[in-house]
Protein backbone atom coordinates (compact mmCIF):
# COMPACT_ATOMS: atom_id res chain seq x y z
CA UNK A 1 0.00 0.00 0.00
CA UNK A 2 1.11 3.51 -0.80
CA UNK A 3 -0.20 6.76 0.65
CA UNK A 4 0.51 9.97 -1.25
CA UNK A 5 -0.03 13.36 0.35
CA UNK A 6 0.36 16.39 -1.89
CA UNK A 7 0.19 20.09 -1.15
CA UNK A 8 -2.92 22.15 -1.87
CA UNK A 9 -1.76 23.45 -5.27
CA UNK A 10 -0.85 20.00 -6.60
CA UNK A 11 -4.01 18.50 -5.12
CA UNK A 12 -6.24 21.03 -6.91
CA UNK A 13 -4.31 20.52 -10.15
CA UNK A 14 -4.77 16.74 -10.01
CA UNK A 15 -8.29 16.43 -8.59
CA UNK A 16 -11.35 16.28 -10.85
CA UNK A 17 -13.89 19.10 -10.88
CA UNK A 18 -17.62 19.50 -11.39
CA UNK A 19 -18.56 19.12 -15.07
CA UNK A 20 -18.89 22.52 -16.68
CA UNK A 21 -21.44 22.72 -19.49
CA UNK A 22 -21.97 24.60 -22.70
CA UNK A 23 -25.72 24.89 -23.30
CA UNK A 24 -27.14 25.91 -26.70
CA UNK A 25 -30.88 26.40 -26.99
CA UNK A 26 -33.60 27.41 -29.39
CA UNK A 27 -36.96 27.98 -27.72
CA UNK A 28 -40.42 28.86 -28.99
CA UNK A 29 -42.87 30.69 -26.71
CA UNK A 30 -46.13 32.61 -26.99
CA UNK A 31 -46.81 36.28 -26.22
CA UNK A 32 -47.39 35.49 -22.54
CA UNK A 33 -44.08 33.66 -22.16
CA UNK A 34 -45.40 30.11 -22.16
CA UNK A 35 -42.83 27.70 -23.61
CA UNK A 36 -44.24 25.81 -26.61
CA UNK A 37 -41.14 23.84 -27.59
CA UNK A 38 -37.41 23.70 -27.02
CA UNK A 39 -34.35 22.35 -28.83
CA UNK A 40 -31.49 22.12 -26.32
CA UNK A 41 -27.92 20.87 -26.65
CA UNK A 42 -25.87 20.04 -23.56
CA UNK A 43 -22.11 19.60 -23.97
CA UNK A 44 -20.00 18.88 -20.89
CA UNK A 45 -16.26 18.99 -20.31
CA UNK A 46 -15.58 15.44 -19.10
CA UNK A 47 -11.78 15.45 -19.00
CA UNK A 48 -9.44 12.68 -20.04
CA UNK A 49 -11.48 9.67 -18.80
CA UNK A 50 -15.10 8.60 -18.44
CA UNK A 51 -15.31 8.63 -14.61
CA UNK A 52 -18.92 9.56 -13.66
CA UNK A 53 -19.59 11.55 -16.83
CA UNK A 54 -22.30 9.19 -18.08
CA UNK A 55 -24.67 9.37 -15.11
CA UNK A 56 -23.84 13.04 -14.43
CA UNK A 57 -24.91 13.99 -17.94
CA UNK A 58 -27.93 11.70 -17.72
CA UNK A 59 -29.12 13.53 -14.62
CA UNK A 60 -28.62 16.87 -16.35
CA UNK A 61 -31.01 15.60 -19.04
CA UNK A 62 -33.49 14.41 -16.40
CA UNK A 63 -33.47 17.83 -14.71
CA UNK A 64 -33.44 20.11 -17.75
CA UNK A 65 -37.14 20.75 -17.05
CA UNK A 66 -36.60 21.77 -13.40
CA UNK A 67 -40.15 22.71 -12.29
CA UNK A 68 -41.54 23.45 -15.75
CA UNK A 69 -43.62 21.54 -18.26
CA UNK A 70 -42.06 21.65 -21.73
CA UNK A 71 -44.67 20.36 -24.22
CA UNK A 72 -42.16 19.52 -26.98
CA UNK A 73 -38.49 18.92 -26.25
CA UNK A 74 -35.54 17.83 -28.34
CA UNK A 75 -32.51 17.23 -26.14
CA UNK A 76 -29.02 16.19 -27.19
CA UNK A 77 -26.27 15.48 -24.65
CA UNK A 78 -22.60 15.46 -25.68
CA UNK A 79 -19.93 14.15 -23.31
CA UNK A 80 -16.71 15.79 -24.47
CA UNK A 81 -13.28 14.25 -23.94
CA UNK A 82 -10.77 17.00 -23.16
CA UNK A 83 -7.15 17.37 -22.05
CA UNK A 84 -8.11 18.32 -18.47
CA UNK A 85 -8.62 16.44 -15.22
CA UNK A 86 -11.35 13.83 -15.32
CA UNK A 87 -14.48 15.69 -14.19
CA UNK A 88 -16.28 13.83 -11.43
CA UNK A 89 -19.27 13.67 -9.08
CA UNK A 90 -20.32 16.69 -7.03
CA UNK A 91 -23.35 17.64 -4.98
CA UNK A 92 -26.27 17.77 -7.39
CA UNK A 93 -24.63 15.40 -9.88
CA UNK A 94 -25.61 17.15 -13.12
CA UNK A 95 -28.95 18.41 -11.82
CA UNK A 96 -27.66 21.95 -11.15
CA UNK A 97 -26.26 22.27 -14.67
CA UNK A 98 -29.53 21.14 -16.26
CA UNK A 99 -31.59 23.49 -14.11
CA UNK A 100 -29.24 26.36 -14.90
CA UNK A 101 -30.05 25.81 -18.57
CA UNK A 102 -33.84 26.05 -18.31
CA UNK A 103 -33.70 28.91 -15.79
CA UNK A 104 -31.55 30.86 -18.25
CA UNK A 105 -34.22 30.25 -20.90
CA UNK A 106 -36.99 31.44 -18.56
CA UNK A 107 -35.00 34.53 -17.60
CA UNK A 108 -34.33 35.39 -21.23
CA UNK A 109 -37.98 34.97 -22.22
CA UNK A 110 -38.98 37.36 -19.42
CA UNK A 111 -36.37 39.92 -20.51
CA UNK A 112 -37.50 39.69 -24.13
CA UNK A 113 -41.15 40.27 -23.17
CA UNK A 114 -40.41 42.88 -20.50
CA UNK A 115 -42.01 40.77 -17.77
CA UNK A 116 -41.03 39.89 -14.21
CA UNK A 117 -39.28 36.48 -14.51
CA UNK A 118 -41.45 35.19 -11.66
CA UNK A 119 -44.54 35.72 -13.81
CA UNK A 120 -43.01 33.60 -16.59
CA UNK A 121 -41.87 30.95 -14.12
CA UNK A 122 -45.39 30.59 -12.68
CA UNK A 123 -46.90 30.38 -16.14
CA UNK A 124 -44.67 27.44 -17.13
CA UNK A 125 -44.93 25.37 -13.93
CA UNK A 126 -46.19 21.81 -13.98
CA UNK A 127 -49.97 21.90 -13.49
CA UNK A 128 -52.77 19.55 -12.55
CA UNK A 129 -54.33 18.43 -15.86
CA UNK A 130 -57.76 19.21 -14.39
CA UNK A 131 -56.67 22.85 -14.09
CA UNK A 132 -54.62 23.13 -17.28
CA UNK A 133 -57.12 21.29 -19.46
CA UNK A 134 -54.22 19.41 -21.09
CA UNK A 135 -53.67 15.75 -20.17
CA UNK A 136 -49.88 15.66 -19.87
CA UNK A 137 -49.04 18.82 -17.90
CA UNK A 138 -47.87 16.75 -14.91
CA UNK A 139 -45.73 14.38 -16.97
CA UNK A 140 -41.98 14.82 -17.40
CA UNK A 141 -39.98 14.54 -20.63
CA UNK A 142 -39.06 10.98 -19.60
CA UNK A 143 -42.75 10.12 -19.14
CA UNK A 144 -42.84 9.91 -15.35
CA UNK A 145 -46.08 11.16 -13.82
CA UNK A 146 -45.42 13.60 -10.97
CA UNK A 147 -47.57 12.40 -8.05
CA UNK A 148 -46.43 14.71 -5.26
CA UNK A 149 -46.41 18.15 -6.92
CA UNK A 150 -46.34 21.03 -4.41
CA UNK A 151 -44.00 23.35 -6.32
CA UNK A 152 -46.65 26.04 -6.75
CA UNK A 153 -47.45 26.02 -3.02
CA UNK A 154 -43.77 26.30 -2.07
CA UNK A 155 -43.38 29.28 -4.41
CA UNK A 156 -46.49 30.93 -2.98
CA UNK A 157 -45.18 30.50 0.57
CA UNK A 158 -41.73 31.97 -0.09
CA UNK A 159 -43.30 34.77 -2.16
CA UNK A 160 -45.48 35.69 0.82
CA UNK A 161 -42.86 35.21 3.55
CA UNK A 162 -40.21 37.20 1.68
CA UNK A 163 -42.71 39.94 0.70
CA UNK A 164 -41.43 39.54 -2.83
CA UNK A 165 -43.76 42.11 -4.42
CA UNK A 166 -42.82 44.79 -1.89
CA UNK A 167 -39.13 43.93 -2.25
CA UNK A 168 -39.35 44.09 -6.05
CA UNK A 169 -40.89 47.58 -5.78
CA UNK A 170 -38.20 48.65 -3.29
CA UNK A 171 -35.45 47.38 -5.63
CA UNK A 172 -36.93 49.37 -8.50
CA UNK A 173 -37.15 52.49 -6.33
CA UNK A 174 -33.51 52.09 -5.27
CA UNK A 175 -32.36 51.63 -8.86
CA UNK A 176 -34.26 54.72 -9.98
CA UNK A 177 -32.31 56.86 -7.51
CA UNK A 178 -28.87 55.23 -7.65
CA UNK A 179 -26.61 55.80 -10.67
CA UNK A 180 -23.68 53.52 -9.88
CA UNK A 181 -25.14 50.94 -7.47
CA UNK A 182 -27.91 48.68 -8.71
CA UNK A 183 -29.93 46.01 -6.97
CA UNK A 184 -31.50 42.85 -8.29
CA UNK A 185 -33.91 40.26 -6.95
CA UNK A 186 -34.92 36.80 -8.16
CA UNK A 187 -37.21 33.99 -7.05
CA UNK A 188 -36.16 30.60 -8.43
CA UNK A 189 -37.89 27.26 -7.72
CA UNK A 190 -36.55 23.73 -7.86
CA UNK A 191 -37.82 20.19 -8.38
CA UNK A 192 -35.24 17.48 -7.72
CA UNK A 193 -35.73 13.75 -8.16
CA UNK A 194 -34.58 11.38 -5.42
CA UNK A 195 -33.07 8.01 -6.36
CA UNK A 196 -29.92 6.63 -7.91
CA UNK A 197 -30.33 6.57 -11.67
CA UNK A 198 -28.47 3.22 -11.54
CA UNK A 199 -31.35 1.11 -10.18
CA UNK A 200 -29.21 -1.50 -8.42
CA UNK A 201 -27.75 1.13 -6.07
CA UNK A 202 -31.14 1.83 -4.50
CA UNK A 203 -30.64 -0.58 -1.60
CA UNK A 204 -29.39 -0.38 1.97
CA UNK A 205 -28.65 -2.61 4.94
CA UNK A 206 -28.41 -2.36 8.72
CA UNK A 207 -27.22 -4.46 11.68
CA UNK A 208 -29.08 -4.00 14.96
CA UNK A 209 -27.61 -5.39 18.18
CA UNK A 210 -29.24 -5.14 21.62
CA UNK A 211 -27.34 -5.90 24.82
CA UNK A 212 -28.97 -7.32 27.92
CA UNK A 213 -28.63 -4.01 29.80
CA UNK A 214 -30.90 -2.38 27.19
CA UNK A 215 -28.22 -0.49 25.30
CA UNK A 216 -28.40 -0.64 21.51
CA UNK A 217 -25.73 -0.67 18.82
CA UNK A 218 -26.72 0.00 15.24
CA UNK A 219 -24.60 -0.08 12.11
CA UNK A 220 -25.75 0.95 8.64
CA UNK A 221 -24.28 1.32 5.16
CA UNK A 222 -24.23 5.14 5.08
CA UNK A 223 -21.21 7.32 5.68
CA UNK A 224 -21.32 10.14 8.22
CA UNK A 225 -19.41 13.07 6.74
CA UNK A 226 -20.70 15.91 8.88
CA UNK A 227 -24.20 15.99 7.42
CA UNK A 228 -25.79 14.49 10.55
CA UNK A 229 -26.71 11.11 9.08
CA UNK A 230 -25.78 9.16 12.21
CA UNK A 231 -27.88 11.47 14.37
CA UNK A 232 -30.90 10.89 12.16
CA UNK A 233 -30.30 7.14 12.09
CA UNK A 234 -30.09 7.04 15.90
CA UNK A 235 -33.44 8.82 16.03
CA UNK A 236 -34.99 6.36 13.58
CA UNK A 237 -33.64 3.41 15.56
CA UNK A 238 -34.82 4.79 18.89
CA UNK A 239 -38.28 5.52 17.52
CA UNK A 240 -38.54 2.03 16.05
CA UNK A 241 -37.75 0.42 19.42
CA UNK A 242 -39.73 2.87 21.55
CA UNK A 243 -36.69 4.00 23.53
CA UNK A 244 -34.86 7.29 24.01
CA UNK A 245 -32.06 8.20 21.63
CA UNK A 246 -29.43 8.20 24.41
CA UNK A 247 -29.67 4.39 24.52
CA UNK A 248 -28.60 4.07 20.86
CA UNK A 249 -25.05 4.16 19.55
CA UNK A 250 -24.44 4.31 15.80
CA UNK A 251 -21.10 2.67 15.01
CA UNK A 252 -18.71 3.56 12.18
CA UNK A 253 -19.42 2.27 8.69
CA UNK A 254 -17.93 -1.21 8.40
CA UNK A 255 -18.26 -3.60 5.47
CA UNK A 256 -17.79 -6.52 7.89
CA UNK A 257 -21.12 -5.55 9.48
CA UNK A 258 -23.11 -4.22 6.51
CA UNK A 259 -21.66 -5.53 3.23
CA UNK A 260 -22.09 -4.20 -0.30
CA UNK A 261 -23.29 -0.79 0.81
CA UNK A 262 -24.20 1.76 -1.84
CA UNK A 263 -22.39 5.08 -1.87
CA UNK A 264 -23.73 7.75 0.45
CA UNK A 265 -24.89 9.70 -2.55
CA UNK A 266 -27.95 10.74 -4.56
CA UNK A 267 -29.35 12.29 -1.36
CA UNK A 268 -30.42 8.77 -0.40
CA UNK A 269 -28.46 8.24 2.83
CA UNK A 270 -31.31 8.82 5.28
CA UNK A 271 -33.92 7.20 3.06
CA UNK A 272 -32.40 3.82 2.30
CA UNK A 273 -30.37 3.33 5.48
CA UNK A 274 -33.17 4.66 7.68
CA UNK A 275 -35.63 2.30 6.02
CA UNK A 276 -33.21 -0.61 6.56
CA UNK A 277 -33.04 0.31 10.25
CA UNK A 278 -36.84 0.49 10.39
CA UNK A 279 -36.96 -3.01 8.92
CA UNK A 280 -34.52 -4.24 11.59
CA UNK A 281 -36.40 -2.60 14.48
CA UNK A 282 -39.70 -4.05 13.22
CA UNK A 283 -38.21 -7.55 13.30
CA UNK A 284 -36.80 -6.95 16.77
CA UNK A 285 -40.13 -5.70 18.15
CA UNK A 286 -41.80 -8.90 16.97
CA UNK A 287 -39.11 -10.97 18.73
CA UNK A 288 -39.46 -9.05 21.98
CA UNK A 289 -43.28 -8.90 22.12
CA UNK A 290 -43.74 -12.51 23.38
CA UNK A 291 -41.08 -11.90 26.05
CA UNK A 292 -42.77 -8.71 27.22
CA UNK A 293 -46.21 -10.36 27.03
CA UNK A 294 -45.16 -13.07 29.47
CA UNK A 295 -43.82 -10.40 31.85
CA UNK A 296 -46.99 -8.31 31.55
CA UNK A 297 -49.45 -11.19 31.58
CA UNK A 298 -51.12 -10.22 28.29
CA UNK A 299 -51.25 -11.28 24.66
CA UNK A 300 -48.27 -10.51 22.45
CA UNK A 301 -50.56 -8.56 20.11
CA UNK A 302 -51.30 -6.10 22.93
CA UNK A 303 -47.65 -5.18 23.56
CA UNK A 304 -46.32 -1.80 22.46
CA UNK A 305 -42.97 -0.15 23.11
CA UNK A 306 -42.68 3.52 24.08
CA UNK A 307 -40.82 5.77 26.53
CA UNK A 308 -38.24 3.08 27.44
CA UNK A 309 -40.97 0.66 28.45
CA UNK A 310 -43.09 -2.18 27.15
CA UNK A 311 -46.82 -1.65 27.64
CA UNK A 312 -49.69 -4.12 27.62
CA UNK A 313 -52.64 -5.31 29.67
CA UNK A 314 -52.72 -2.04 31.56
CA UNK A 315 -49.19 -2.60 32.88
CA UNK A 316 -45.67 -1.47 32.00
CA UNK A 317 -42.23 -2.97 32.33
CA UNK A 318 -38.91 -1.20 31.83
CA UNK A 319 -36.97 -1.70 28.60
CA UNK A 320 -33.76 -3.06 30.29
CA UNK A 321 -35.85 -5.66 32.13
CA UNK A 322 -37.34 -6.83 28.84
CA UNK A 323 -33.95 -7.12 27.12
CA UNK A 324 -32.42 -8.96 30.08
CA UNK A 325 -35.34 -11.39 30.17
CA UNK A 326 -34.98 -11.93 26.41
CA UNK A 327 -31.34 -12.86 26.98
CA UNK A 328 -32.34 -15.24 29.78
CA UNK A 329 -34.98 -16.76 27.47
CA UNK A 330 -32.31 -17.22 24.77
CA UNK A 331 -34.04 -14.91 22.33
CA UNK A 332 -31.72 -13.60 19.62
CA UNK A 333 -30.88 -9.94 20.19
CA UNK A 334 -29.27 -9.15 16.86
CA UNK A 335 -30.95 -8.77 13.50
CA UNK A 336 -30.13 -7.52 10.02
CA UNK A 337 -32.40 -5.11 8.18
CA UNK A 338 -32.64 -4.54 4.46
CA UNK A 339 -34.42 -2.12 2.15
CA UNK A 340 -34.70 -1.67 -1.58
CA UNK A 341 -36.37 1.39 -3.07
CA UNK A 342 -39.57 0.21 -4.79
CA UNK A 343 -41.23 1.34 -8.02
CA UNK A 344 -38.00 2.47 -9.75
CA UNK A 345 -37.93 1.38 -13.37
CA UNK A 346 -36.10 3.53 -15.91
CA UNK A 347 -35.09 2.30 -19.35
CA UNK A 348 -31.85 3.90 -20.56
CA UNK A 349 -32.37 2.60 -24.09
CA UNK A 350 -35.71 4.38 -24.57
CA UNK A 351 -35.03 7.18 -22.04
CA UNK A 352 -38.41 6.53 -20.49
CA UNK A 353 -39.77 5.33 -17.17
CA UNK A 354 -39.90 6.07 -13.47
CA UNK A 355 -36.44 7.49 -12.79
CA UNK A 356 -37.23 8.78 -9.28
CA UNK A 357 -39.12 7.50 -6.25
CA UNK A 358 -40.30 11.00 -5.35
CA UNK A 359 -39.39 14.67 -5.78
CA UNK A 360 -38.19 17.41 -3.45
CA UNK A 361 -39.29 20.99 -3.99
CA UNK A 362 -37.98 24.36 -2.90
CA UNK A 363 -37.78 28.03 -3.78
CA UNK A 364 -35.45 30.86 -2.83
CA UNK A 365 -35.57 34.64 -3.06
CA UNK A 366 -32.19 36.37 -3.27
CA UNK A 367 -31.53 40.09 -3.28
CA UNK A 368 -28.15 41.49 -4.34
CA UNK A 369 -26.43 44.80 -4.94
CA UNK A 370 -23.69 45.48 -7.47
CA UNK A 371 -21.28 48.32 -8.13
CA UNK A 372 -21.54 48.94 -11.88
CA UNK A 373 -18.10 50.61 -11.91
CA UNK A 374 -16.16 47.65 -10.50
CA UNK A 375 -18.40 44.57 -10.73
CA UNK A 376 -18.16 44.08 -6.96
CA UNK A 377 -21.34 42.69 -5.45
CA UNK A 378 -23.02 41.97 -2.13
CA UNK A 379 -25.64 39.42 -1.13
CA UNK A 380 -28.20 41.48 0.80
CA UNK A 381 -30.92 38.99 1.74
CA UNK A 382 -32.01 35.39 1.27
CA UNK A 383 -35.41 33.79 1.98
CA UNK A 384 -35.90 30.07 1.44
CA UNK A 385 -38.81 27.66 1.72
CA UNK A 386 -37.78 24.04 1.23
CA UNK A 387 -39.77 20.81 1.22
CA UNK A 388 -38.21 18.18 3.51
CA UNK A 389 -41.40 16.23 4.17
CA UNK A 390 -41.88 15.51 7.87
CA UNK A 391 -38.38 16.34 9.03
CA UNK A 392 -36.52 13.74 11.10
CA UNK A 393 -34.40 16.54 12.57
CA UNK A 394 -35.35 20.14 11.62
CA UNK A 395 -32.13 21.62 13.01
CA UNK A 396 -29.98 19.38 10.81
CA UNK A 397 -32.17 19.98 7.77
CA UNK A 398 -32.02 23.75 8.16
CA UNK A 399 -28.24 23.55 8.46
CA UNK A 400 -28.07 21.45 5.30
CA UNK A 401 -30.28 23.93 3.43
CA UNK A 402 -28.24 26.94 4.53
CA UNK A 403 -24.95 25.25 3.66
CA UNK A 404 -26.25 24.01 0.31
CA UNK A 405 -27.43 27.48 -0.68
CA UNK A 406 -24.04 29.02 0.11
CA UNK A 407 -22.27 26.22 -1.76
CA UNK A 408 -24.50 26.74 -4.80
CA UNK A 409 -24.04 30.49 -4.61
CA UNK A 410 -20.27 30.01 -4.54
CA UNK A 411 -20.36 27.70 -7.55
CA UNK A 412 -22.34 30.23 -9.59
CA UNK A 413 -20.65 33.47 -8.54
CA UNK A 414 -16.99 32.99 -7.61
CA UNK A 415 -15.55 29.49 -8.02
CA UNK A 416 -13.94 29.90 -11.43
CA UNK A 417 -11.74 27.25 -13.06
CA UNK A 418 -9.31 28.42 -15.74
CA UNK A 419 -7.11 26.04 -17.78
CA UNK A 420 -4.23 26.83 -20.10
CA UNK A 421 -4.03 25.48 -23.66
CA UNK A 422 -2.26 22.33 -22.45
CA UNK A 423 -5.09 21.49 -20.07
CA UNK A 424 -3.29 22.51 -16.87
CA UNK A 425 -5.43 24.13 -14.19
CA UNK A 426 -4.29 27.68 -13.44
CA UNK A 427 -6.68 28.38 -10.56
CA UNK A 428 -5.17 25.91 -8.11
CA UNK A 429 -4.86 27.74 -4.80
CA UNK A 430 -6.60 30.17 -2.42
CA UNK A 431 -5.07 33.15 -4.22
CA UNK A 432 -6.76 32.33 -7.53
CA UNK A 433 -9.73 30.10 -6.62
CA UNK A 434 -12.27 31.85 -4.41
CA UNK A 435 -14.89 30.16 -2.24
CA UNK A 436 -17.61 31.69 -0.03
CA UNK A 437 -16.56 32.73 3.48
CA UNK A 438 -18.48 33.90 6.54
CA UNK A 439 -18.57 37.47 5.25
CA UNK A 440 -20.54 36.34 2.20
CA UNK A 441 -23.49 35.16 4.33
CA UNK A 442 -26.14 37.88 4.61
CA UNK A 443 -27.57 38.95 7.94
CA UNK A 444 -31.06 38.45 6.50
CA UNK A 445 -31.03 34.67 5.90
CA UNK A 446 -34.41 33.06 6.59
CA UNK A 447 -35.08 29.34 6.06
CA UNK A 448 -38.54 27.79 6.47
CA UNK A 449 -39.42 24.11 6.16
CA UNK A 450 -42.49 23.44 4.02
CA UNK A 451 -45.08 21.50 6.03
CA UNK A 452 -45.67 18.49 3.81
CA UNK A 453 -45.47 14.78 4.66
CA UNK A 454 -43.85 12.64 1.97
CA UNK A 455 -46.45 10.59 0.12
CA UNK A 456 -43.95 7.75 0.06
CA UNK A 457 -43.30 5.68 3.22
CA UNK A 458 -39.82 6.98 3.99
CA UNK A 459 -38.59 7.21 7.61
CA UNK A 460 -40.96 9.64 9.39
CA UNK A 461 -42.31 10.45 5.89
CA UNK A 462 -39.30 12.73 5.50
CA UNK A 463 -37.62 13.83 2.28
CA UNK A 464 -33.96 14.10 1.32
CA UNK A 465 -32.02 17.28 2.10
CA UNK A 466 -28.55 16.42 0.82
CA UNK A 467 -28.41 17.70 -2.74
CA UNK A 468 -31.67 19.52 -3.62
CA UNK A 469 -31.09 22.82 -1.74
CA UNK A 470 -27.83 23.47 -3.62
CA UNK A 471 -29.93 24.50 -6.62
CA UNK A 472 -31.46 27.30 -4.54
CA UNK A 473 -28.19 29.15 -5.18
CA UNK A 474 -29.47 29.75 -8.72
CA UNK A 475 -31.52 32.61 -7.31
CA UNK A 476 -28.31 34.50 -6.41
CA UNK A 477 -27.04 34.26 -9.99
CA UNK A 478 -30.30 35.44 -11.54
CA UNK A 479 -30.58 38.25 -8.99
CA UNK A 480 -27.17 39.40 -10.24
CA UNK A 481 -28.42 39.25 -13.83
CA UNK A 482 -31.41 41.34 -12.76
CA UNK A 483 -29.06 43.93 -11.23
CA UNK A 484 -26.94 43.99 -14.39
CA UNK A 485 -30.09 44.52 -16.49
CA UNK A 486 -30.98 47.42 -14.19
CA UNK A 487 -27.71 49.11 -15.15
CA UNK A 488 -29.23 49.49 -18.63
CA UNK A 489 -32.76 50.25 -17.36
CA UNK A 490 -33.84 46.74 -18.42
CA UNK A 491 -33.63 47.79 -22.08
CA UNK A 492 -31.26 44.98 -23.07
CA UNK A 493 -31.29 41.19 -22.72
CA UNK A 494 -28.39 40.26 -20.47
CA UNK A 495 -26.33 37.19 -21.30
CA UNK A 496 -23.78 36.25 -18.65
CA UNK A 497 -21.86 33.05 -18.07
CA UNK A 498 -21.37 31.50 -14.66
CA UNK A 499 -19.60 32.05 -12.41
CA UNK A 500 -20.69 35.69 -12.18
CA UNK A 501 -17.34 37.03 -11.02
CA UNK A 502 -16.86 40.81 -10.58
CA UNK A 503 -15.04 40.82 -13.93
CA UNK A 504 -17.98 39.20 -15.72
CA UNK A 505 -20.49 41.45 -13.93
CA UNK A 506 -18.56 44.55 -14.98
CA UNK A 507 -18.27 43.41 -18.61
CA UNK A 508 -21.96 42.43 -18.66
CA UNK A 509 -22.93 45.89 -17.39
CA UNK A 510 -20.87 47.56 -20.10
CA UNK A 511 -22.35 45.34 -22.82
CA UNK A 512 -25.91 45.84 -21.55
CA UNK A 513 -25.46 49.62 -21.64
CA UNK A 514 -24.02 49.43 -25.15
CA UNK A 515 -26.85 47.17 -26.36
CA UNK A 516 -29.45 49.49 -24.83
CA UNK A 517 -27.86 52.52 -26.48
CA UNK A 518 -27.73 50.76 -29.85
CA UNK A 519 -31.38 49.78 -29.57
Q: In words, what does this structure look like?
A:
This protein has a 4-stranded mixed beta sheet, with helices on both faces. The protein has a 4-stranded mixed beta sheet with strand order 7-6-5-11. The chain is of the alpha+beta class and 519 residues long. Strand 1 (21-29) and strand 2 form a beta hairpin. It contains 13 helices and 16 strands. The protein folds into 2 domains: 15-197 and 348-518, Aldehyde Oxidoreductase, domain 4, CATH 3.30.365.10; 203-340, Aldehyde oxidase/xanthine dehydrogenase, molybdopterin binding domain (Aldehyde Oxidoreductase, domain 4, 2-Layer Sandwich), CATH 3.30.365. Helix 12 (474-486) packs across helix 13 (502-518).
Produce the secondary structure layout:
Blueprint: H1 8-14, E1 21-29, E2 35-47, H2 53-62, E3 73-81, H3 95-113, H4 117-124, H5 129-132, H6 151-161, H7 164-177, E4 181-194, E5 203-210, E6 216-220, H8 229-241, E7 248-250, H9 269-296, E8 304-306, E9 309-312, E10 315-318, H10 319-328, E11 334-340, E12 345-347, E13 352-354, E14 358-371, E15 377-387, H11 394-413, E16 444-450, H12 474-486, H13 502-518
Parallel strand pairs: 2-3, 6-7, 15-16
Antiparallel strand pairs: 1-2, 4-14, 5-6, 5-11, 8-9, 9-10, 12-13, 14-15
Helix pairs in contact: 2-3, 3-4, 8-9, 9-10, 11-12, 12-13
